[in-house]
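Request: How about a record?
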Amino acid sequence: MERVSTGIDELDRKLSGGYPMNKVTLITGIAGSGKTIFGIHFLYRACLEGRKCMMIATEETPEDLLHQAEFLGRDLKPYYESGQFIIEKLFEERSEKIGSTRYGFKPESFDIELPTLIELVPEGIECLVIDNIGVFAIRIQARRFRDQFDGLSYLLRKKGCTTLFIMDEAAHNMTHQLAEYSVYGSIRLLVKENSYLGKMERYLNIPKMRSTAVSPEMSVFEITSDGIKVQGPGGGSLVE
């Protein structure tokens, strides 16, 4: 199976080369666990390799995303300015609806059905990140969310996109973690205390990745000014 680099060398090694090409991978975790940063790494490496890329952003402005990428040493601005990298500004649309509503934001006012997101993806897009797809879960029943999620996943695979769905843990739990059944692979990010060291650390584990031999062990990772650094289970570094 062909792969597309995650943009994180250590994670590529864990995934036999990267995310499965033309498939959907789900990344979940609490706020601050690093979900968006995983998406930035993926998009930056894809841009470096000459791929046409896109992010559908439901929680951040393009300016904030580009600033965050630059801080991590993954400057996406040149690709954004050239049109190789596109940011769809759904966050700004949500904010405008909040401002125009007398009583504040109403979930039903964000009236985009999940499958219709495919209409926002131009032909030729090879790598796509939707961050955060969890915002669509707050206004519909879990069963309907599953149906729509399945539909969008199918349409994106048919379109030939290698896709990351980023989803907050609250929405993932609210929908009974149904999204994990639909995707080709999933990565969970956690923040918890290392009882041996007495400090909080970030962890990742890979509960599902079809056609890939993966370890169920959790790995520690750090977010640095030079990007994400992944260590092995128990803190053994895999960085060469």
DSSP finds eight helices and eleven strands in the chain. The longest strand covers residues 199-209. The CA atoms of residues 131 and 166 lie 5 Å apart.
